[in-house]
From TrEMBL:
PANTHER family: HEPATOCELLULAR CARCINOMA-ASSOCIATED ANTIGEN (PTHR14614). This is Methyltransferase type 12. CDD domains: AdoMet_MTases (cd02440). The keyword Methyltransferase applies. The keyword Transferase applies. GO terms for biological process: methylation. Pfam families: Methyltransf_16. Transmembrane segments: none annotated. GO terms for molecular function: methyltransferase activity. It comes from Marinospirillum insulare. InterPro entries: Methyltransf_16, SAM-dependent_MTases_sf.
């Protein structure tokens, strides 16, 4: 018996219309085996993976326009995996990744809920050496620069798992760490295009959030 409450949300991203199972609120917590604690996830942040965040919706809208032909794509910190679901709906070669003990089960449930094939999943802690991972053409993530050390961890990870010619796309709601990340990505040979985007329907320009697109030609 699960020790947390869930809800189902209606979602619509372009032609993709379906439902998404999420945690009922941010107060949910259930870690009887201590799996989250072992993964470094505290009780205060345990429920965050199970929310549908504006940044995930922004990224999902962005990836519906992504060129997917012959491209191997990875979503970092997928949580509920809305962008991955959109890409799977489009027929992309998409792999989702996270480090929360329940992320894979929610991803599988949501793929099945929307009559999609299961999405390959990687348990991918950013601070550990990536083992035997075939490199990716495209890496995407939503609001993954929310801690001061995430810039360093993500750049080191991208250095290991991105192909020489690669694209990285991140939706960022205005975190103060993106400049550090962008500078480090430049050192890896990536150029940046920033696009200001709204992260709420009633938000007025100039928008605080960004869609960050990094490209390296190899």
């Amino acid at each position: 018996m699960q020790g947390y409450q869930v809800r189902k949300l209606a979602i619509e991203v372009g032609a993709f219309k379906g439902r998404l199972r999420a945690l009922s609120d941010k107060q949910q917590f259930f870690d009887p085996q201590g799996s989250a604690a072992k993964a470094g996830i505290c009780s205060a942040s345990w429920s965050l993976f199970g929310q549908l965040w504006p940044a995930s919706q922004v990224l999902a809208k962005a990836v519906k326009q992504l060129d997917i032909k012959s491209r191997r794509i990875l979503e970092l910190g997928c949580g509920l995996g809305l962008p991955s679901l959109v890409l799977q709906y489009r027929g992309a070669d998409i792999t989702a990744s996270d480090h929360h003990p329940l992320s894979e089960s929610f991803l599988d449930y949501n793929a099945n809920l929307n009559h999609l094939p299961a999405i390959p999943y990687l348990d991918l802690p950013w601070g550990k050496e990536a083992k035997e991972i075939k490199p990716f053409d495209v890496i995407v993530g939503s609001d993954i620069l929310y801690e001061p050390n995430h810039s360093t961890l993500l750049v080191d990870l991208i250095k290991r798992i991105a192909k020489p010619k690669a694209k990285v796309m991140i939706s960022c709601p205005g975190r103060g760490h993106r400049n550090k990340f962008s500078n480090a990505m430049q050192d890896l040979g990536f150029s940046l295009v920033e696009k200001r985007v709204a992260f709420a329907e009633d938000e007025k320009a100039p928008f605080k959030g960004r869609l960050l697109t990094y490209r390296r030609e190899g």
